[in-house]
Every structure is written in structure tokens, then in C-alpha cells.
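Dear colleagues,

For the upcoming journal club I promised to circulate an example of a predicted protein-ligand complex. I picked one with nicotinamide-adenine-dinucleotide because it came up in last month's discussion. The inputs are reproduced below in full, followed by the predicted structure.
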Amino acid sequence: MRVNVIGAGYVGLVTGAGLASLGDDVCIVERLEERRATVRSGRAPFHEPGLDELLSRVVGEGRLTVVGEIEHAPPADVWFIAVGTPSVDDRIDLGAVLAATDEIGRAVAATSTRTVVVVRSTVVPGTTDGPVRDRLAAAVGDALDRRVGLCAQPEFLRESTALADFVRPDRIVVGGREAWACEIVAGLVARLGGTVIHTTATNAEMMKYASNALLATLVSFANEIAAVCEHTPGADAHDVLGSVCLDRRWQVDGRTPDLVSYLRAGAGFGGSCLPKDVEALVSTARDRGVEPWLLHGVLQRNRSRPPALVELCRAVLGGLEGRTIAVLGLSFKPGSDDLRRSPAVELVQLLVAAGVVVRAHDPLAADAAAAVVPAAVLRFDDLADCVTGCDAAVVATAWPEYREADWSALAARMVGRDVIDGRDALRGIALPAALRRHTIGRVADPQPLEQGAAR
Ligand code: NAD
């Protein structure tokens, strides 16, 4: 099939490269010159395991090409809209989706072949059959339905495992009015398996939001339990949640499913999807006369977590002004260099505002973080350099590097002895006696200044 994909972000590139690897002729349309050049050279503009290798192959074989404007893209059987839907005042900005729809409409109107337009970006329920359909109809007239079809086909990929998710999809949701168009899209994307759900476009859009809202709710549930434990001497949220997860109903064939990893206390959820999607769902609910008490609470609890971690640092160190703290991890989750809405970045900003000298480490995102952390923050991709001279280290993102680190060597570089584990990432690690681990999810265990190593 001939496939055009608008947007060379995570969704667009994984979709495009994945389909090209299955033999389709894919053209990516990307406005940003720098991104185009990177993709043309067979690399991804962001870190995603396996994607560079796949892109290099499909670009080399001529299966994936890149252009800058929709009007320069070749005719296609299917057009995927995979542009960003950023959050503005807790609502999504549909500007890029609608602009792409207009341009695709003009391109499709100039042809006479059967074409399907697919909204793969995350949009609030009612968007595809509402404004997108209206804009497409304005461009192609009565060809819509007969020759031009419109579907919503939300993407469920997870950054850092996006290609694995493409190869082994758990569900493929295709929603739309034109059955013939939905068949084409399902045939295109379901070749690798996965349960196909044929539904309405609005239902498809709602499925995506419900899915992310549940994941966010699990995280905030765990953090709400943690918040209570943090004010309950003797309680430890990690023990508590660990026992909850041993309930048979949370086990599958004697195994703990991935989903349970969301039931962990920490610094909160971030990234380009969960916060934005829950905010958009909350706003949409209110627009429709429904007060989303639960999801509002999910967001409130999430917003409370970076400040709670700052308070733990304050309690442990007996004050923050003038202290030097190493923040370990900047990306929103391990395995990704994505800094969008990262709780670790917010932690850095809060610590700087409290007068802390912050040194920050990330295995992948230290350079890119220059754009999102205050200029005074020194950034390192070497862990030992980062902790040198610090009063404390805070684990803000659960990179495996921190579990695997030589903490004796790190302790020798630090001035203080406190390691504050904001992700409970070091549980079970034997830290050297020179270090004391503090974790979120239980009452802070401050160390009187006079007992600390040279501070
Ligand atoms: P992104 O912001 O990383 O990439 C979007 C790209 O589209 C940008 O490079 C931008 O320059 C380009 N673009 C915008 N308008 C264009 C136009 N008219 N012509 C050509 N290029 C254009 O976005 P992303 O993270 O891939 O997300 C895309 C959508 O998918 C969003 O709605 C997001 O919520 C959703 N989504 C993202 C993920 C994820 O993990 N990132 C997962 C599921 C769904």
C-alpha cells in the first residue's frame, strides 16, 4: 500500500517505519527541517530502542521517504495524521490536526482514487466525526463517504517499547462511519495480529482516553497511599502496595502483569501523554456537564508529588538553602530521552527555586535538558562527576544505571551521606555504610546535622 504519515514524532515514525518494514511504500511529511534531515540519514530524532536500525534499513531500501509539505507528498491509499495535540490550558490544541486535515483534503481532492484519512493523534471524543469531518468535507465535497473515508485509529504505543508494541499490538481500534475505509485500515495495521475492535470514531477516541486515564489513576492511587503513609509512623507505602499486588486478582497465571508496575509510589506520572490526556478528559467532561471528581483528584495528587519530594529533601537535610544536590534522572521515565512534563524536571525547578545548587544527571537526556532546566543547573552524563561534592543525591527517574552504580565509589565523591530515593528504585540494593537511603512513602527520617558526615 501507499501510505503517507504526517508528523515524524514517536507515533508517526514508529507507524511509518513499521509499515515500511512490512513492505508498504511510506512517505513521512515533517515540517521541521532538522527532523527531516535526521530521518533521511536513517536515524530517529529521539531515542527509541531499535528505531534507528529499522529506519536505516527502510530508508536504505527506498521504502520510506521524507518530504516537508503535504502538497509534495505522493498520492496515497492511506494518510495517517500523527501530528502533536499539545495541551493549552488543560485542553488539547487541535490546530495541527485541523491544518493537516485541510492540506490532506486539498491533496486528496485533486486525485480520483480511493483514499482513507486516519486520525492517529490523540484527540478528544467527537473530534474525528466533528471538526475533522467538517474540514475534510469542505475540501472533498461529496467524495467523502464514497471515495474518501475517515477513521480514528488511536495509538497505544509506550515510549521506550514502541517498536515491540508495534510488532505485538494488544489491540487495534478502528473507528469510523465508512465500513470500507475501516476495513482497509484494519487490514493495513492488523497484519501482525492483535485484537481488532471495529467501532465508531468517537468510541475509538474515548477508548484511548479511558486507557490512559486508568493508568494515571493507578499511579495516583499508589501516590495517595504513599502520601498517607508519609504521615503515618510505622507505615511504608512500598510494603503496603506490594501486598496489595499479591492479591490473586492482580496476578495472571501466577505472574505479576506489567500493569502492576503503575501501582508504585514515586514522583508521579509525566511524559507527553498521561498528564495531557487526563487534563483533556477532565475539561471535556466539564464541557459536557459532568464533574470528573475522580480524575480531578488523580491530577491533584500527581501535581503534589514533586513538591512532596522537595519536602522530603528538606526534612532529610534540615533545610535546602545553599545545599548542593545531585538529581539523578531527568527524562520522564527510564529508557526514554523524552523530557516533556517530566516530574524530574519539575523537581529540579523546585529545588533551584528553594535555593539549592542542583547538579543533574541523565544517561540520555542531559544535553537536551538545557532547554528545560534553569541555566544554573550543571548537567552531566557521568554519574560520578555529577555527585561529586554533593550534600545529597535524589533519584528522580528509575534508570537501571542507578541500581547498578558503584555506590561505594559514589559515596567517596559525595560530601554528604544521604541518598533520597524518589522512585524507590534502590530498594534491595546494599548501599555502603557511608550512605543512608531515604525513600518516599514513609515518614521522613531526618538525620540531625551533627550526625551527618562533613556537611
Ligand atoms: P510529536 O510532537 O513528537 O511529533 C509531531 C510531529 O508532527 C512534529 O515533528 C511536528 O513538526 C510535525 N507536524 C505537525 N504539523 C505538521 C504538518 N502540518 N505537516 C508536517 N509535519 C507536521 O508528537 P508524538 O509524540 O508523536 O504524538 C503525536 C500524537 O500522538 C499526539 O496526539 C499524542 O498525544 C499521540 N500519542 C503519542 C504517544 C507517545 O508516546 N508519544 C503515544 C500515543 C499517542
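Two points we might discuss: The CA atoms of residues 241 and 336 lie 26 Å apart. Residues 448-455 have pLDDT under 50 and may be disordered.

See you all on Thursday,
B. R.
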